[in-house]
Specification:
Layout: H1 4-9, E1 17-18, E2 21-22, E3 24-25, H2 36-49, H3 59-79, E4 87-90, H4 93-104, E5 113-117, H5 126-135, E6 138-142, H6 152-158, E7 163-169, H7 181-190, E8 194-198, H8 210-213, E9 217-221, E10 232-236, H9 238-243, E11 254-257, E12 262-264, H10 278-294, H11 296-315, E13 320-323, E14 332-337, H12 342-351, E15 354-355, E16 357-359, H13 364-370, E17 375-379, H14 386-403
Parallel strand pairs: 3-15, 5-6, 5-7, 7-8, 8-9
Antiparallel strand pairs: 1-2, 4-10, 9-10, 11-12, 13-14, 14-17, 16-17
Bound molecules: pyridoxal-5'-phosphate (PLP).
Pyridoxal-5'-phosphate (PLP) binds near residues 121, 123, 124 and 198.
Cofactor: pyridoxal 5'-phosphate
EC number: 2.8.1.7
GO biological process, one term: cysteine metabolic process
Length: about 400
């Protein structure tokens, strides 16, 4: 069991007041808060070992390089990648997806098909559309039902020899649906298609095992798992990473450069051009250590309790509708109140110290499906409490009274 007071004490921002009220931070789907160990590790890096990596012979450069590569190893262990060179540092999920779509431009031809799910974040839609424009490939959409679950019978029908890539999130940021990715990966592989999993919303709640999943690519952001912004990971199977051309050209990614011809460095450096976010990459390892110390079983138990309690409490409010009622879901509650714009509720409850997200959550197609402009989204983390949910429910009731 979690000692919630001890956990909360790890996050200095949580004891703040906002607009004169105790902060209730329920926007974890957008970014998580950072524990003191992560904040400290950033200044420790700059105070003690700051130097460029993989370049200098001097001591600090060696220390920084070692710390960066140790962090890569931690992440490799965490997601159970076979090789550390399958773990690429990126600036986030968006960067990881664009790296892959850019690489596939040279492998696809007109008429090839890319399957994308109806539940995707814009960053797992738009890069694929850009790839289709470049190559003449065709984007097909795996539909969902009213509960916000992908319809597997339709997925099975869409798969064919034309399918080259399937891209789907592990967990939906807008609705919290956990997708049956193991099934989807296995089915796609029967047709020789590659599968990219957008794990941005999954890694805060669970520990993915990329070898067991057998996915070809798995991407996530550091800032949603207690790590710094501007950090992320692209896991790719060695074979695929060897097949894809580099994304950006520059320093660090080359073996030899002449004006006639350049040869590229080995993995992972082939995809890591330029000076990266060194402090961020190192501290992402610190964040992952922290999450593992808290323990993913504890995290899941606390979040499940919050999801159940929050769902029950919110449904006490007349005219409140929850979007996303999948059997398998995480601690995200997307809702609206009949006749009231989500933005108006969000603005009023912010005055009461409650931070939620309102809008389309970078997933406009989902909002279009439900025929709404957006929702209010409360997304809980393991450091949230039932008392905070009570505060949100009271605030929403007050906002509703003021607005109706
Ligand atoms: C947050 C998020 C992204 C984008 O992540 P960035 O950190 O902004 O690159 C993509 N997909 C999902 C499901 C997300 O939740």
């Amino acid at each position: 069991m979690l000692d919630i007071n001890k956990i909360r004490a790890d996050f200095p921002i949580l004891s703040q007041k906002v607009n004169g009220k105790p902060l209730v931070y329920f926007d974890n789907g957008a970014t998580s808060q950072k524990p003191q160990v992560v904040i400290d590790a950033i200044s420790k890096y700059y105070q003690e070992i700051n130097a460029n990596i993989h370049r200098g012979v001097h001591t600090l450069s060696q220390l920084a390089t070692d710390a960066y590569e140790i962090s890569r190893g931690k992440i490799q262990n965490h997601i159970n990648a076979k090789f550390s060179h399958e773990v690429l540092f990126t600036s986030g999920t968006t960067h990881g997806i664009n790296l892959v779509t850019n690489g596939f431009a040279s492998l696809l031809k007109a008429g090839d098909e890319i399957l994308v799910s109806a539940l995707e974040h814009h960053s797992n839609i738009v890069p694929w559309q850009m790839l289709c424009e470049k190559t003449g490939a065709i984007l097909r959409v795996i539909p969902m039902n009213e509960n916000g679950e992908l319809i597997m019978a339709e997925y099975d029908k869409l798969l064919s020899d034309k399918t080259k890539i399937v891209t789907v999130n592990h967990i939906s940021n807008a609705l919290g649906t956990v997708n049956p990715i193991k099934y989807m990966i296995d089915e796609a592989h029967k047709f020789g298609a590659a599968v990219l999993i957008d794990g941005a919303q999954a890694v805060p709640h669970l520990k993915p095992d990329v070898q067991e999943l057998d996915c070809d690519f798995y991407v996530f952001s550091g800032h949603k798992i207690c790590g710094p912004t501007g950090t992320g990971i692209l896991y790719g199977k060695e074979d695929w990473l060897n097949k894809l051309p580099p994304y950006q050209g520059g320093g660090e990614m080359i073996k030899d450069v002449t004006f006639e011809k350049t040869t590229y460095a080995e993995l992972p450096h082939k995809f890591e051009a330029g000076t990266p976010n060194i402090a961020g990459g190192i501290v992402l390892g610190t964040a992952i250590d922290y999450m593992n110390e808290v323990g993913f079983e504890n995290i899941q138990q606390q979040e499940l309790e919050l999801l159940e309690y929050g769902t029950k409490r919110l449904l006490e409010i007349d005219g409140l509708k929850i979007y996303g009622t999948a059997k398998e879901k995480t601690s995200v509650i997307s809702f609206n109140i009949e006749g009231i714009h989500p933005y108006d509720i969000g603005t009023i409850i912010d005055k009461l110290g409650i931070a939620v997200r309102t809008g389309h959550h970078c997933a406009q197609p989902i909002m279009n499906f439900f025929n709404i402009p957006g929702t209010i989204r409360a997304s809980f983390a393991f450091y949230n409490t039932k008392e905070e949910i009570d505060a949100m429910v009271e605030a929403v009731k007050r906002a509703k009274m003021m607005l109706s």
